[in-house]
Amino acid sequence: MLRAPSRARALLDRTPHWLAPRWCSAAGYQYDTACAHGAGDAVAGYAAMLARGARPDAYTFPSLLKAAARATASGVAVGAAVHAHVVKFGFDRNDHVASALVLAYAAGGGGAAARFVLDESATGESGASPVAWNALISGQNRARRFGHSRRSFADMVRAGVAPTAVTYVSVLSACGKGGDALLGMQVHKRVLASGALPADLKVGNALVDMYAECADMGAAWKLFDDMQVRSVVSWTSLVSGFSRAGQVDRARELFDSMPERDAVSWTAMIGGYVQAAQFMEALEMFREMQYNSVRADEFTMVSVITACAQLGALEMGEWARIYMSRHGIKMDVVVGNALIDMYSKCGSVERALDVFKEMRSRDKFTWTAIILGLAVNGHGEEAIDMFHRMIKVSEAPDEVTFIGVLTACTHAGLVDKGREFFHSMIDSYRIAPNVMHYGCMIDLLGRAGKLTEAMEIICKMPMRPNSAIWGTLLAACRVHGNTEIGELAAERLLELDPQNSMGFILLSNMYAKSNRWEDVRRLRHEIMEKGIKKEPGCSLIEMDGVIHEFVAGDRSHSMSKEIYFNLEKVLTDLKNAGYVPDITEVFVEVAEEEKPNVVYWHSEKLAIAFALLSPESNMVIRIVKNLRMCLDCHNAIKLISSLYGREVVVRDRTRFHHFRDGFCSCKDYW
Fold first, then answer.
1. Where does the record place its PPR repeats (predicted)?
2. Which end of the chain has fewer beta carbons closer than 10 Å to its terminal beta carbon, N or C?
């Protein structure tokens, strides 16, 4: 006989024959949350049925428990309460009801309760039925407890219960998601011995997907190639696998060869481009998806929004949000987090905060996203306040959260607060700092001029400092004129990365600032002799939903003639206002009189000249640059924002720069 767990039994003792929303709360379950996931409607329907005097039958509870299983986190509480009524109405010996209970508990993370019900459902020597075992493994997969799923399969085999095709599909999914290729191969052997292949297409697809998830594309391809019958799922598994393996071109070839495609296929290809950092291709693929009248889902939109974030494509991101609203795509926590990240990376913190406030449910990634967004956009104090709010609602921060908090301290110049957070991360939250946390501390101390302390921290790091650490210290030494530590930092940086042009540039600028012109000439000669090339500067700007790309000195744009003509007008206005080009970072082999042209034609200046051609004078100019913005462009854009009354937001490799009325949000510029 099935015995209700103690919590359900206690609930039963104080629950009348009818069921109401208050009944859910008594089980520790929030009714509003249930409604959001669909379980609330099922509970309300069941309550209404009982209120009318109708009694449940063997078909009532499986449906109710299926809704509870979909409620994931709250499924255990709903399942426990329904379990009480299962016992109350005498359906505790029904196999289908028992399996539904197992699924509801397991899907909600109540593995112990699920296993308890499964063991209690065993009859005679045969033990629990395959259906109950399948419910346990499937439920644990839903709860993303893939290790538990694999152990349950092992227990099932030890118990002498023969796996079914459904079992194989579930455990292979757990092997793939958990990266357990060894168990996956053992299951493959069992599948072959059982004769499930090639008859069962779902099992074949599960095998292809398992090998693809485990990055064994050779085995995945062989299985796919040997399949007598394939479905869209078979093809999509390979497309996803090749994308994850970094072979996005191969994935696209397969995608183009597919006899049919569904929303999952399109999403896999879009996600593959995003993972490969080919963000413009991802958006182009999404446009093709719309052209082919395939309706996107929330998974598609997360990839699209991520691509917009990386490109700084605010207009496209806004359109994606409208598309979701128009097509009824649910705004779950993952989508909300992606929108916060997108708005933050486009420099629109106000809209990121609006999304944050509108979200009915938040997780630690939501809080981390808004803290990082505020921090990188120069709102340090607000980011720290948000961190304290996160702690108050009992959401535990992780290592990424602390990167955001330390970044906030850096931008706000809160050295003591930064030290405090760094130590609390280690002592109070038991989070071991990684190289990025140390990088934040070096940045914080370096900006404050505490270079000796920064050097001491580097010497005590438990891991080897990387080029980013030494580059950050070198940049601080340039600002504060500390050539002794700066030379050491440059030496370590160039040992790790001999072709790092920025190391030479920063060191040269530091020498120039100290009037060490002989050292400047020596460095420039070394750069020329070693053939060190600076990575080409590239700037992206979105106009009317279209991404335009500019490379320094490039004339391939269709409006190149108009852009360069307008740039000459802008430069004339700048010079009349007192602008003098800063050529200290020019290291190309050109005559001295030609060096100003090199900085005049930097990619961000071309992007701004293009934006100023637009008649929309109140539009914020948003630019994403692949490199650190040079001092000349920084000074020029400050002046442009004043002369033309335009707000300019530049996201370069290191930070955001918000220019308005001749000022920049960054108090210092490196």
1. 129-163, 164-198, 231-265, 332-362, 363-397
2. N
